[in-house]
């Protein structure tokens, strides 16, 4: 063992340490600490004091203690109640903990006294520089902190030893245990100086920043106090003027702001506007603009939401109660609800319902809102040309106002309503901007979480809004806008569907609208079927509702006219009954008749199937062949597409004329005339190619066409049959005309499979790929 190595009792301090030159007193209570002090008093009164790394350890081991501590002399001992002691010690010199010895009653260790051997390398000038630097830092620290006593500053001013000054400062300033231990750990004087200088510099900077924070807080408190005093003075002034009951508009706005559910950024912006409003004269024109803007911001549902219903059974019941059929639409809504119930926040889809007028697209949206327990807002986009209708006007314009979407949210009062964008295919553009382009951001789920209205000028979250759009056709919707929506086709109703809709919805609704009780009017089932078949021709049910309204109005008049008074008592007339026998009294003569089967097979007459905006229809295509100069005529107001289909058909026939036994000079010596009746009605579309080709070939070869066959499909120059659309409406038209066989392109087979069995029943549907197959089925 070297001369610098000693064995002595160890005191482990919690939360503090002792530096050389320090005189400190502390209370001890642990048995191992009391025993160590008693052992020191029995010998030379010296102990090794070292700090614990973890205060929670009751019986510390070597790993729980720091490596460097201080050898101290016990100067005084005072025994306290409950086996406690108050000890006063003085630090003598640094020492490192080398090894813990086994001792059952107290901590005992081998320590090595440390001497600063590198001090001799420092010159007197360097030591003087260190002294001055420490004194300067200490003066700055004392001035910033304001807690160091003048006596302590005088004490360190008289110290001429750098080592002693470092330990004196480190032991007396308010720094953490880790910082004090860092100074104690440095065994080299220069390193110890650098460590303490760094700590002092850091503490000075912390104090400076702390004072800046305090100044800011004080400034804010003073500002609020000043505002409070000014408001109190304003109240007194108003009382003197007799206006004590009048509360300023700005104060009302501040009260509303405090109740508003919104983010801090939104509230700060509104608060700024209110503060600005206070400074504006009430007679100024700008005052009205600022007032309107603040009221708009305060009325918007920034973070206010309604609770959606997750009851799928209830939603299904509501949809079935309000609408008959529409299977795909109902399935999509229930899928959305199921996802939302599982994820608690499903992505709100952008649904676009596309179908003919009167098929219930708008009423579907209202039913969806009721099923999901959402607020319902309808925005009609038909004919909108100004982009500001969507994005809002700039506040710089006179009469500026927010766009329709923000107005819709304001009307709903929540941020997650159902917004119906009605007639989205009828928006247009002019020099004021492109309205459809403005809708791109609104209907993009990746962008609409931060939609900025030009008037509001603050980002609004539209991601939780359930958008449902309606359109009659996708042809006029711009492709980028169409790409952002999920298209659901709402096709034409069958006569059976119209019957159920009228029975379950329209008749009760129309009776109530016209003041009739349930028992006042009855319409027989046969009469209802005749109304649907003979008095309406449409894809939807609007005309049917008008016809039922006409019956209800005439019934109401009839009930009142028959009412008589006998002996001062009113006699209620009997129920009005509408049957097939008296239906003409209410609706007049039958308005529509369907072109049914011809009486016999004929040459050059073929039944084609067409799609119209009000459903399907059948067209009789007639072809006459006459001696002439090879002219080719098309009449019946045919569009360019149908004309080209006819040209393709005649080219195909000429290419197979040899196979069909047609004379080579036939086309040069004969004129061909194609006509489609109802010449005043424009006709166009890519689905009459095979029909016109069959009619022409029948007329040229003098072969009859089966009267019970109807067809649809486009033809190519090589006789291939191409797929077409609108098959449901076309199949309905064929069924109404009592057609037995329908020829459909082979590639449309999947579309036919999706059509309800009820529509296809009674029809033989044949799939064709080549013109030869068409002729095989059609020609006798």
UniProtKB/TrEMBL annotation:
Domain (Lon N-terminal) ranges: 8-204
What EC number(s) has UniProt assigned to this enzyme? 3.4.21.53
GO-annotated biological processes: cellular response to heat; protein quality control for misfolded or incompletely synthesized proteins
Describe the task this protein carries out.
Answer: ATP-dependent serine protease that mediates the selective degradation of mutant and abnormal proteins as well as certain short-lived regulatory proteins. Required for cellular homeostasis and for survival from DNA damage and developmental changes induced by stress. Degrades polypeptides processively to yield small peptide fragments that are 5 to 10 amino acids long. Binds to DNA in a double-stranded, site-specific manner.
Domain of life of the organism in this record?
A: Bacteria
Question: Gene name?
Answer: lon
Matching entries from NCBIfam families are given as: lon (TIGR00763)
Give the originating organism. Answer: Velocimicrobium porci
As its record notes, the protein acts as a catalyst of: Hydrolysis of proteins in presence of ATP
- Which Pfam families does the entry link to? AAA, Lon_C, Lon_lid, LON_substr_bdg
What switches on expression, per the entry, is described as: By heat shock.
| Matches recorded under PROSITE patterns | LON_N, LON_PROTEOLYTIC, LON_SER
Nucleotide-binding among keywords: yes
What family name appears in the similarity comment? Belongs to the peptidase S16 family.
Q: Name one GO cellular component term.
A: cytoplasm
The answer to whether UniProt assigns keyword ATP-binding to this entry is: yes
Location(s), subcellular: Cytoplasm
UniProt: ATP binding residues: 355-362
- Subunit annotation: Homohexamer. Organized in a ring with a central cavity.
Q: What is this protein called?
A: Lon protease
**Which PANTHER family does UniProt cross-reference here?**
LON PROTEASE (PTHR43718), LON PROTEASE HOMOLOG, MITOCHONDRIAL (PTHR43718:SF2)
Question: Which class of enzymes does this protein belong to?
Answer: hydrolase
What is the active site of this protein? 687, 730
Q: Which UniProt keywords apply?
A: ATP-binding, Cytoplasm, Hydrolase, Nucleotide-binding, Protease, Serine protease, Stress response
The chain positions of domain Lon proteolytic read 600-780
Check the record and name the InterPro entries matching this protein.
Answer: AAA+_ATPase (IPR003593), ATPase_AAA_core (IPR003959), Lon_bac (IPR027543), Lon_bac/euk-typ (IPR004815), Lon_lid (IPR054594), Lon_proteolytic (IPR008269), Lon_Prtase (IPR027065), Lon_prtase_N (IPR003111)
**A molecular function (GO) term:** ATP-dependent peptidase activity
């Amino acid at each position: 063992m070297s001369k610098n190595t000693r064995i002595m009792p160890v005191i482990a301090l919690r939360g503090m340490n002792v530096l050389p030159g320090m005189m400190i007193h502390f209370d001890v209570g642990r048995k191992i600490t009391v025993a160590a002090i008693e052992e020191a008093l029995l010998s030379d009164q010296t102990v090794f004091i070292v700090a614990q790394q973890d205060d929670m350890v009751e019986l510390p081991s070597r790993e729980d203690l720091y490596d460097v501590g201080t050898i101290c002399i016990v100067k005084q001992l005072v025994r306290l109640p409950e086996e406690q002691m108050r000890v006063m010690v003085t630090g003598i010199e640094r020492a490192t903990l080398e090894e813990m010895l086994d001792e059952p009653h107290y901590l005992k260790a081998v320590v090595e006294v440390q001497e600063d051997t590198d001090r001799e390398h420092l010159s007197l000038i360097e030591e003087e520089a260190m002294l001055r630097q420490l004194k300067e830092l200490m003066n700055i620290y004392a001035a910033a902190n304001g807690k160091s006593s003048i006596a302590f500053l005088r004490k360190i001013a008289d110290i001429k030893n750098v080592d002693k000054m470092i330990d004196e400062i480190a032991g007396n300033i308010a720094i953490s245990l880790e910082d004090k231990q860092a100074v104690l750990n440095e065994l080299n004087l220069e390193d110890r100086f650098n460590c303490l200088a760094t700590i002092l510099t850091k503490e000075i900077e912390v104090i400076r920043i702390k004072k800046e924070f305090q100044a800011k807080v004080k400034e804010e408190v003073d500002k609020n106090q000043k505002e409070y005093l000014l408001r109190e003075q304003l109240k007194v002034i108003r009382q003197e003027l007799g206006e004590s009951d009048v509360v300023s508009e700005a104060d009302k706005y501040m009260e509303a702001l405090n109740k508003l559910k919104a983010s801090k950024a939104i509230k700060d912006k509104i608060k700024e506007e209110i503060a600005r409003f206070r400074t504006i004269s009430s007679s100024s024109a700008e005052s009205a603009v600022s007032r309107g803007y603040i009221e708009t911001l305060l009325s918007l549902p920034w973070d206010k939401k309604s609770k959606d219903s997750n009851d799928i059974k209830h939603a299904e019941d509501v949809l079935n109660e309000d609408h008959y059929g529409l299977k795909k639409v109902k399935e999509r809504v229930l899928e959305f609800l199921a996802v939302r119930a599982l994820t608690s926040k499903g992505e709100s889809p952008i649904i676009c319902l596309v179908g003919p007028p009167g098929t219930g697209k708008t009423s579907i949206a209202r039913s969806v809102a009721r099923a999901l327990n959402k607020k319902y807002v309808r925005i009609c986009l038909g004919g909108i040309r100004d982009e500001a209708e969507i994005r809002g006007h700039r506040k710089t314009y006179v009469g500026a106002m927010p766009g329709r979407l923000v107005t819709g949210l304001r009307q709903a009062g929540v941020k997650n309503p159902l917004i119906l964008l009605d007639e989205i295919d009828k928006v247009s553009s002019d020099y004021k901007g492109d309205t459809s382009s403005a809708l791109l951001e609104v209907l993009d789920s990746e962008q609409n979480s931060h939609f900025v209205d030009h008037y509001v000028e603050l980002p609004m979250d539209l991601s939780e809004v359930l958008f449902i759009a309606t359109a009659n056709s996708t042809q006029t919707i711009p492709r980028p806008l169409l790409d952002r929506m999920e298209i659901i086709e709402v096709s034409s109703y069958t006569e059976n569907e119209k019957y159920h809709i009228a029975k379950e919805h329209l008749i009760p609704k129309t009776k109530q609208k016209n003041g009739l009780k349930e028992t006042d009017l009855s319409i027989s089932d046969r009469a209802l079927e005749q109304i649907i078949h003979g008095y309406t021709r449409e894809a939807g049910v609007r005309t049917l509702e008008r016809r039922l309204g006409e019956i209800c109005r005439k019934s109401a008049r009839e009930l009142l006219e028959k009412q008589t008074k006998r002996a001062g008592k009113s006699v209620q007339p009997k129920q009005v009954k509408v049957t097939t026998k008296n239906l003409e009294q209410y609706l007049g003569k039958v308005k529509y008749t369907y072109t049914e089967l011809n009486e016999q097979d004929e040459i050059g007459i073929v039944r084609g199937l067409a799609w119209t905006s009000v459903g399907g229809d059948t067209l009789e295509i007639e072809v006459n062949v006459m001696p002439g100069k090879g002219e080719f005529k098309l009449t019946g107001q045919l569009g360019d597409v149908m004309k080209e289909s006819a040209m393709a058909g005649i080219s195909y026939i000429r290419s197979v004329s040899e196979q069909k036994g047609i004379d080579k000079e036939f086309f040069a010596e004969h004129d061909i005339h194609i006509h489609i009746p109802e010449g005043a009605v424009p006709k166009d579309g890519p689905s009459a190619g095979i029909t016109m080709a069959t009619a022409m070939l029948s007329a040229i070869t003098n072969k009859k066409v089966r009267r019970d066959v109807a067809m649809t499909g486009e033809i190519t120059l090589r006789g291939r049959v191409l797929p077409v659309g609108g098959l449901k409406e076309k199949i309905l038209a064929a069924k109404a005309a009592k057609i037995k066989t329908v020829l459909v392109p082979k590639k449309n087979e999947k579309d036919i499979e999706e059509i309800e069995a009820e529509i296809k029943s009674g029809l033989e549907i044949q799939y064709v790929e080549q013109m030869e197959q068409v002729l095989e089925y059609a020609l006798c």
